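Let us practice reading a record.
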Amino acid sequence: MCGTDREIVAGAYGWPPPGRDRLVLGHESLGRVLDGPGGSQFLPGDLVVGMVRRPDPEPCAACAIGQWDMCRNGRYTEHGIKELDGFAAERYVLPVDAAVAVPAALGRVAVLVEPASVVAKAWDHIDGIGARAAWFPQRVLVTGAGPIGLLAALFAMQRGYDVHVLDIVTEGPKPALVGDLGATYHCGPAGEACAGADVVVECTGVGHLVFDVLTCTAPAGIVCLTGVSAGGRQLRVDAGALNRELVLQNDVVFGSVNANAGHYRDAVEALTRADPDWLSRLITRRVPLHDWPSALQRQGEDVKVVVDLDR
């Protein structure tokens, strides 16, 4: 379960399949194959993750080449979010080309593959933007120590960067998870944590924090926005000063959402290289299917909450 599921249940957005008034949730998934088509790589017992987004029926230029995460016309569909049922079911059918093979060694932490794919896409695009010129990043700031933020920090550590994570909590599992990853945890002002960052991965969607990090990066800094802000809140921003900063420093700010098949494969690889004990600590609660509503209620030390549909 994630914030998207909570927002769909609250009625903020979400679209059921055509002709239906009901949407099955569950875009973050881990399943076990019961039966695989002959000639496919999938055998009974294999672990698989379902890709969330599917290309539009009349593919745009991006969807036509497998980059449905960059769909131009908005006619894509998404399991558990937009016009396709999700995977929160005891049984479901998954097309072979929408299934991601998962090594058995990952076990149940492979439920993190989908959020890790979102992070893999963010880093793929950060790397691409950085390649526009000579670029030797050292310091990375991740804002928010939720699942996406912690996975973004993991990817940064695997790249060998000096990683800093900013969050508001001072107790609970988050500071320890950051520290055990080898990164530095901050809970003070954004400017202090951000100063001189070559890359910022913003994972909170908190409006004032977004603008704070835009003005404190190193020259040619890259800010990737992965958090979705709630609407309706107004901020006073010196737009002229911000524009001057971005232009004169060659800074880049961009948004990133969803993932394509290559990003899912990158996610599996990154998780396979990670410490399995550390990954398992990201999953702070597992609830049985009959108690699924409790997974939507935030508790103080929650990081990632999982619904086990076979319990």
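A brief commentary: The chain has a mean pLDDT of 93.
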